């Protein structure tokens, strides 16, 4: 199996540079003194999440030989592919599970994509049917070298902005984001530790790394978490990357995720969806090495009603 290299990530950075935001690395002065906290707010991307990076790299690679882009996603990758396809003049067909938050479904449609809703656990199969109908190009949410390389450009930016970084905390689900960032950090900041963070209710990556092979959690189990963007499982490709680049996986509770959403809003003035807040929740869980710590705020596409509910909850202690 050929894994993504730092050269692949650098090539992706060149390809996507005109289309994405180079997000700042923000100093969070309220962090722990022994672990200075820095936040990488990918919620500031045009579609509100990091997924735009991998989408532009992958769609850009096929734009001259395909007229249609097909994807399956719980939401952020859907919007990213729709956005990238529109920029390159391709038609987008996006398969989304029926339980996807309405804000993400409507946002994908607003970007000009045709949305096809599927039953839980059936999005890949439905997307294969759509692909056969269109003869387009499949842009999967994480199981693709170009997608992984695109997400890895975040790691290049962290290395440039904070070369002294000692710890990087990354949300992990399908594993494309952690695979890409981990590849870049390993190459450019070899002194740094890289940790994935995932919900306890969807902790299949942590279980798989302990076992030394991928493990399967049912979609019913994974759908319990509020972090709807972290309900996927790693592919063979991403799991191989995660085995190489991660120093460990931190799992966090639903209450810790909700607390991190509040902290980002009240202390950082940043809107985060639950999936985007898990890295901060992992930081708060503790146990990571001392030194400069970067956490990835991966997305901010949260239902307004959910945001109001979480912000209204009492702060423990």
UniProtKB/TrEMBL annotation:
<feature type="domain" description="Tryptophan synthase beta chain-like PALP">
    <location>
        <begin position="16"/>
        <end position="298"/>
    </location>
</feature>
<comment type="function">
    <text>Catalyzes the anaerobic formation of alpha-ketobutyrate and ammonia from threonine in a two-step reaction. The first step involved a dehydration of threonine and a production of enamine intermediates (aminocrotonate), which tautomerizes to its imine form (iminobutyrate). Both intermediates are unstable and short-lived. The second step is the nonenzymatic hydrolysis of the enamine/imine intermediates to form 2-ketobutyrate and free ammonia. In the low water environment of the cell, the second step is accelerated by RidA.</text>
</comment>
<dbReference type="GO" id="GO:0003941">
    <property type="term" value="F:L-serine ammonia-lyase activity"/>
</dbReference>
<dbReference type="GO" id="GO:0018114">
    <property type="term" value="F:threonine racemase activity"/>
</dbReference>
<dbReference type="InterPro" id="IPR036052">
    <property type="entry name" value="TrpB-like_PALP_sf"/>
</dbReference>
<dbReference type="Pfam" id="PF00291">
    <property type="entry name" value="PALP"/>
</dbReference>
<dbReference type="GO" id="GO:0005524">
    <property type="term" value="F:ATP binding"/>
</dbReference>
<dbReference type="GO" id="GO:0000287">
    <property type="term" value="F:magnesium ion binding"/>
</dbReference>
<dbReference type="GO" id="GO:0030170">
    <property type="term" value="F:pyridoxal phosphate binding"/>
</dbReference>
<keyword id="KW-0663">Pyridoxal phosphate</keyword>
<dbReference type="InterPro" id="IPR001926">
    <property type="entry name" value="TrpB-like_PALP"/>
</dbReference>
<comment type="similarity">
    <text>Belongs to the serine/threonine dehydratase family.</text>
</comment>
<protein>
    <recommendedName>
        <fullName>threonine ammonia-lyase</fullName>
        <ecNumber>4.3.1.19</ecNumber>
    </recommendedName>
</protein>
<dbReference type="GO" id="GO:0004794">
    <property type="term" value="F:threonine deaminase activity"/>
</dbReference>
<keyword id="KW-0456">Lyase</keyword>
<dbReference type="GO" id="GO:0070179">
    <property type="term" value="P:D-serine biosynthetic process"/>
</dbReference>
<dbReference type="GO" id="GO:0030378">
    <property type="term" value="F:serine racemase activity"/>
</dbReference>
